[in-house]
Write a structure and sequence with these properties.
elongated; alpha+beta; five-stranded mixed sheet; 52% helix
Length: 237
């Protein structure tokens, strides 16, 4: 009696594997349908979805955004990208042009030109631009800035004027309390001149005062301190 009941149970459960098999086939079919849908998905929207998912799980690249834009690969955008990179191509020509102008003016000892990863650095010694401890431009300084500015006006690069001093404390007067003030005021005077007298658009200009924090020589004698008192006009690449 017991044996017959067990046989009956086995016969009733013998078809359960068909249910499992059917479920598996359904899942496989769903998987291939999903693959097919991915093959026709809008790539731009998929990347946007992927980026959002990465952000949700905390894996996101800093400083990058993704926006859907129908003109992402338009010819206008390609031309704009080319114009952005163009200054890097002509940076050496700008350097040579400024060096030639300096040589013609006989200012090789007062103005130095170098090229580094930031761009072209035109270093002008303090004596050519300002009186000691002062931040108002001298007539000779205005002349050299007009010549350099004429070249800068022809190119699209942004420009940074960066003031530097030696480590000798300044005599406090007016707006000048220390070397930070002096270097910043000198840099701002140069930027104001390039904007107002040379007509370089202000959006391309910025000024920075570094005080004595970035010497090019040790402040161990008068000659080295004189070299450190300068303003760098950086043509950013």
């Amino acid at each position: 009696m017991v044996r017959k009941k067990r046989r009956k149970d086995e016969e009733e459960g013998g078809g359960s594997w068909l249910t499992t098999f059917g479920d598996m086939m359904t899942l496989i079919l769903t998987f291939f349908i999903l693959l097919y849908s991915f093959s026709t998905i809008d790539v731009l929207k998929f990347k946007k979805m992927l980026f959002s998912f990465r952000g949700a799980i905390g894996v996101i690249d800093g400083g990058k955004t993704f926006e859907e834009d129908d003109s992402s690969f338009s010819s206008r955008n390609i031309q704009e990208m080319a114009s952005i990179r163009k200054p890097n191509i002509d940076i050496m020509k700008v350097s040579h042009k400024i060096q030639s102008m300096i040589k013609e003016e006989g200012l090789e000892k007062k103005v130095k030109v170098a090229v580094n990863k930031r761009g072209v650095v035109v270093s002008i010694s303090e004596g050519l631009l300002f009186s000691t401890g002062q931040y108002e431009l001298l007539p000779g300084g205005k002349k050299i800035l007009s010549l350099v500015g004429g070249i800068l006006k022809e190119i699209p690069n942004n420009i940074s004027a960066e003031g530097h001093t030696d480590n000798i404390p300044v005599r406090k007067r007016g707006f000048v309390k220390d070397n930070w003030d002096l270097s910043a005021l000198r840099a701002s005077r140069i930027i104001a001149f390039l904007s107002e007298s040379v007509n370089i658009p202000p959006r391309r200009l910025k000024s920075v005062g570094f005080g004595d924090s970035r010497p090019i020589m040790p402040n161990d004698n008068d000659f080295h301190r004189q070299m450190n008192r300068r303003v760098d006009i950086v043509i950013l690449s």
